[in-house]
Amino acid sequence: MHIPFRLNLTLGLALVSLVILGAVFAPLLTSHDPILDADLMNSEMPPSWDHWFGTDSQGRDVFSRVLHGARVSLTIGIVAQAINSTIGIALGLSAGYWGGWWDDVVNGLTNLMLAIPSLVFALAIMAVLGPGVMSLLIALGLTNWSWSCRITRSAVMSLKSQGYVQAARTLGYGDIRIMLTQLLPNIVGPVLVMATLGIGEAVLAEAALSFLGLGIRPPAPSWGNMLTDAREAIRSVPWATIFPGLAVFITVLGFNLLGDGVRDWLDPRMQVRA
Amino acid sequence: MSAAPDPAGAPILKVEDLHVRFPVSGGLLGRKRTLHAVSGVDLSVQPGQCLSLVGESGCGKSTTALAIMGLQPPSSGAITVEGRPVYGPGAPDRRARARLAQIVFQDPFSTLNPRETVGRALSQPLMLHGVRSRAERAERVATALRQVGLLPEHAARYPHEFSGGQRQRIGIARALILGPRLIVLDEPVSALDVSIRAQIINLLMDLQQNLGLSYLMISHDLGVVEHVSDRVAVMFAGQIVEEGGWREVFTAPAHPYTRRLIETIPNPARLTGGASEILPPAPEPPSGSIFWPPVDRRPDISQPPEPSALVSIGEDHRARVRPV
Amino acid sequence: MSGPLLDIRGLTIGIPNRAGPPLEIVRDLSFDIMPGEVFGLVGESGSGKSASALALMGLNRRPLTTLRGQALYGGQDLLAMPRRSMRKLRGNRISMIFQEPMTALNPLARIGRQIAEMFVLHRGLSWSEARPRAVEALAAVQVPNPEDRARAYPHQLSGGLRQRVMIAMAMACRPDLLIADEPTTALDVTVQAEVLRLIRELCEREGTAVLLISHDLGVIAQMCQRVGVMANGRLLELRDARALFTDPRHPYTRGLLAALPRLGSRATEGRHRLADLDMTIDRNAPDFAATHLIPRGEPA
């Protein structure tokens, strides 16, 4: 397939930049404070010129809270996935390259992680650590590395018999150096795709955990606890759930499209090499 | 380069009774089996010589090459390069070994890291081996590139900007960069077009002469082997079945496997009445013995080979036999 | 039959270019194949020999297109034939084998079924009628225990056996022409010898002509009656095989033969530098005179 205009890459980039720009410039985009501007007199107002997304049951501006919530959600999504990718790549590289008992151990661990739904696992960790940003990062960063690990491992297994990896060994390169300079640059493509998809998953998981009351503590805004707060009034105050829901949807869709797009974009080069 | 073997000189490479066995699991319920990939190989390469290890896929020749390079630990046996053991106590570490022997691989497309410039691929090993000065590294990279017929400015390029033949030259430059005296050539030209093949063979012969290199060449191409080798060892089912000077092996092949290899190679000389059109009659094995193993059936390398021995059948010429 | 089985005239293959003249990969290729003959096309990679073979079968992939020329087979032009009629010929009257049989075999189907399919497809046999024919076909290509092997999957066979299976499929309908594109390049020399002998014997018995495509001058010399030498998309020399190898006329052919380290040559000629064949033919030259040889054009 040869598509000169890559729709998913462009759309994904656009959506992700929209969310990131919104998060970064949140204070400039709205004059309402997401927490302090609680105005019970103005609660449950539908979208208007002053409150683009309306106000919630405590009279806080939903637009402002969605923007500020993006900061929390994106930070957690990106940092948690960075932790996941680092763990997955480190384990996958070493297991694929060294093989033997270490490979068996890593494989067993990966299968274990895959057998337990990662959200359930994260839930258990959150229950132990208690709510908060740090606990969220730990819970989400430690539970979703198995796919990165698998993909890295299988890519390494097929690459390690290549002439240049063998040559690096005969030239006296140490194992770590081989992994970092010879193997890692050549598996960056699939790993990057996994990471992009993983960010979307982490954002969703954060929302889920916060929704269950285990994530970000109110009144700090996160998309998850905004949904929790507003769910009882979903019929009478639909905008308070629709907009944070839409934000989650757009972010996850954006990262998924971006991941797909990156994969398509890297594909021709992979084929040339094969 | 065609120096006569100097019996007094110490060999640059010595392989003694090398065995490499691989465990293989026989499927879900199958019992564990062992593949005897290399079974008792002895080799020695004198300084400045080219020894070729000839055989078909699966005969163990590449496993032997990897074992010599320290990439495949042997099950038993000893390998020494310039008198220093490759494995076991007293073996130099990976870095010290790197300066003793290098290898050139077959596939010009997988031999170079696609994400690394040629200059980086050549200078990183130097850095690793303590060449601190950037200028000196650049100079040595330029020298290596010139030695293989490329230009110093090629250092800035990535592998995909080169043709197959040029990549093979870069692979050779990488093998030369640390200045080893022994180079293992693993099917160095079999993936290349005829015309490119000729250029690379010429380059390898020139380098051998100019730098005093010793080669162990792994190949299945008898035309190439005859052209460049001083000595030839023919491998079949993990064992050497015939060994000797190139002239002895090619003009008076004795072992039925060697004869079959020579007979079956499609050769334009057949049409034109070249020298190899008719093999000389097979010599008789020493009395009381037969050439071993037989070649009419594929030997089962999941069993250890039956006892047999390489015996002298002429001056500088040995073949594998078994008493009847 | 006295005329040629296949008469190829002016075959030109290239990539159409909206902005200008098309990029030609093969230009003005003309040769004929007589019934029962083994015709060789020899050349290095990029010479256009495989693209030519695929064009005859109508199998070239976009953007590669047949731009001009005819390939007359029994009064019909293969190159201008509707797809449907071409499909009826393919595998039936004209069949093809490739370098790597694994890619041409369906990994999920037993080989007996894959061979039987040829009879079902082209002979209208039922599956139950076709099955014993498939076993016969395996026996014809000297596969040991054909009954058992018919139940095997492709990955369970060695490279040599897989190529025999391919040959069994290709020869199932007793075609007039077998196109063999580097059929033994992936095989060991002793296996190669057996497969080549098999191709020759089978085709001789069935009266099938062979278009053998190879980079290996030795294989070509051993198999072919007539040989065409291709370089850079042009046919440089078309000769009787013996004449070509004893008295090559074109300087490119001479260079190709001189660049080959031939077994047995060292005993008479000593160790010498091989001739560098650092040239090819200018694709746009009007003729093939030696003056039109140009450097081979590696990226500088």
From TrEMBL, chain A:
Annotated transmembrane regions: 6-29, 119-143, 187-216, 236-259
Family membership noted in the UniProt record: Belongs to the binding-protein-dependent transport system permease family.
Positions of the ABC transmembrane type-1 domain: 70-259
A GO term from the CC aspect: plasma membrane
Highest taxon of the lineage: Bacteria
UniProt keyword Cell membrane present: yes
BP terms from Gene Ontology: transmembrane transport
Location in or out of the cell: Cell membrane
Main localization (coarse): membrane
Name of the featured protein: Peptide/nickel transport system permease protein
Protein keywords: Cell membrane, Membrane, Transmembrane, Transmembrane helix, Transport
TrEMBL record, chain B:
Keyword Lipid metabolism found: no
Annotated spans, Disordered: 282-324
Pfam families named in the record: ABC_tran (PF00005)
InterPro entries membership: AAA+_ATPase (IPR003593), ABC_transp_ATP-bind (IPR050319), ABC_transporter-like_ATP-bd (IPR003439), ABC_transporter-like_CS (IPR017871), P-loop_NTPase (IPR027417)
Catalyzed reactions: glutathione(out) + ATP + H2O = glutathione(in) + ADP + phosphate + H(+)
A Gene Ontology biological process term: transmembrane transport
Keywords: ATP-binding, Cell inner membrane, Cell membrane, Membrane, Nucleotide-binding, Translocase, Transport
GO molecular-function term, one example from the UniProt record: ATP hydrolysis activity
Purpose of the protein: Part of the ABC transporter complex GsiABCD involved in glutathione import. Responsible for energy coupling to the transport system.
Oligomeric and partner information: The complex is composed of two ATP-binding proteins (GsiA), two transmembrane proteins (GsiC and GsiD) and a solute-binding protein (GsiB).
The protein, known as: Glutathione import ATP-binding protein GsiA
Species: Paracoccus chinensis
Organism placement in taxonomy: Bacteria, Pseudomonadati, Pseudomonadota, Alphaproteobacteria, Rhodobacterales
From TrEMBL, chain C:
ABC transporter domain mapped to chain residues: 8-257
InterPro entries: AAA+_ATPase, ABC_Ni/Peptide_Import, ABC_transporter-like_ATP-bd, Oligopep_ABC_C, P-loop_NTPase
GO cellular component: plasma membrane
Keywords: ATP-binding, Cell membrane, Membrane, Nucleotide-binding, Transport
Annotated Gene3D superfamilies: P-loop containing nucleotide triphosphate hydrolases
Membrane topology: Peripheral membrane protein
Pfam family, one: ABC_tran
Keyword Calcium attributed: no
GO process terms (BP): peptide transport; transmembrane transport
Subcellular localization(s) per the UniProt record: Cell inner membrane
Molecular function GO labels: ATP binding; ATP hydrolysis activity
Similarity remark: Belongs to the ABC transporter superfamily.
Protein name per Swiss-Prot or TrEMBL: Peptide/nickel transport system ATP-binding protein
